[in-house]
């Protein structure tokens, strides 16, 4: 008889099937990629439409915000609600739209505003500003102005060094793109912006 000897496969010889990833490995890779795409998409949506991280540059908002603080701004706040006096807003600098400023809203459209030796007076009533320490108040004065529709008067809390509406005038609502929401760095100062 002419028999062809059958040689059993040895473990040292790779099988053509063993080179393919197992179904479990394929599922793990697919799941991981899906989760990555979903996570990146959600993060992009949040940053583009809801919250954006920003860095404070300068000391005009002391003592609340310090130079190099990191915070999130709420970009949807004014699409669903109105800008209020006292809000801390981020806006494009009116004289150079490539720069952003962060200041506090002091007067609203239609308000009458004047400043008498550092005392802000809105609609004939002195504005109580507990967020401005006495040592940060300056003695500047400004004659009364009537706020135009769609424009806001903004000032830094550190009045003696802030470049704000006293220098560049009221800010158009279209330039305001977010409300300061939450300081996240430095961690020991993390908290809601008020």
From TrEMBL:
Enzyme class at the top of the EC tree: hydrolase
The keyword Transmembrane belongs to this UniProt entry's keyword annotation: yes
InterPro entries registered for this protein in UniProt: LexA/Signal_pep-like_sf (IPR036286), Pept_S26A_signal_pept_1 (IPR000223), Pept_S26A_signal_pept_1_CS (IPR019758), Pept_S26A_signal_pept_1_Lys-AS (IPR019757), Peptidase_S26 (IPR019533)
Alphabetized UniProt keyword annotations: Hydrolase, Membrane, Protease, Transmembrane, Transmembrane helix
Catalytic activity: Cleavage of hydrophobic, N-terminal signal or leader sequences from secreted and periplasmic proteins
SUPFAM superfamilies: LexA/Signal peptidase (SSF51306)
Regions that span the bilayer: 32-51
GO BP annotations listed: signal peptide processing
Localization per Swiss-Prot or TrEMBL: Membrane
Chain ranges of the Peptidase S26 domain: 30-185
Entry's EC annotation: 3.4.21.89
Membrane topology: Single-pass type II membrane protein
Catalytic machinery residues: 60, 103
Cited PROSITE patterns: SPASE_I_2, SPASE_I_3
GO MF, one example: signal peptidase activity
Any one Gene Ontology cellular component term annotated for this protein: membrane
Presence of the UniProt keyword Transcription regulation in the record: no
Family of the protein in this entry: Belongs to the peptidase S26 family.
PANTHER family found in the cross-reference section: CHLOROPLAST PROCESSING PEPTIDASE, SIGNAL PEPTIDASE I
This protein's name: Signal peptidase I
Organism from which the protein derives: Terriglobus saanensis (strain ATCC BAA-1853 / DSM 23119 / SP1PR4)
